[in-house]
Amino acid sequence: MAEAPFGRDLRAVPESTWRGAVGAGVDGLARVVALRRATGVSVPGSVHGGVRWTLRLEGGALLAVAVLAYAQTGAGWLPFALMFFLPDLSMLGYLGGPRMGAALYNAAHSTLAPLGLIGVGALGGEPVALALGLVWLAHVGFDRLCGFGLKYGSGFASTHLGPIGRPDPW
Predict the structure, then answer these.
(1) 72 is in which domain, residue-wise?
(2) Spatial distance between the Cα atoms of 105 and 54, rounded to a whole number of angstroms
(3) Are residues 79 and 63 in the same domain?
(4) Residue 151 CB partners (closer than 8 Å, separation 6+)
(5) Residue 35 shares a structural domain with residue 54
(6) What local confidence, expressed as pLDDT, does residue 27 receive?
(7) Are both 58 and 38 inside the same structural domain?
């Protein structure tokens, strides 16, 4: 990737440069995201290039393994389809602001809770918990494959996998 005009430290970009590019009233990480899109520089705290694609492929592998394991439970595909997008209800947290939304979204899209539920289901002989955990894990893998990473408190589009959406053409 070519080096950005101001190096990798986007804080060094003069205000006159970014104000004209992204508009008045934009600050913090929103400014950095807009500058990243304009210059091709990664958002601090997010990955880019080959690492980003590796993490997205890991999400695909997570999805595939969870779906294959779910198929072995005999729980049926209608319940899988009905439950698959339930974790996305956590986006309602954004009604309480970006920090609240990010916290709820991340709680529902981390691998820790579904893995715990899978453990309870597998070790405790609870087939419903096992099936729910596998559907939940499949959803997390699907989101990561699609590039929807864990969120930062600055807004929905700021993720650990980089900003969501296409770079602006300017």
Answers:
(1) 47-159
(2) 22
(3) yes
(4) 101, 102, 105, 106, 158, 159
(5) no
(6) 54
(7) no
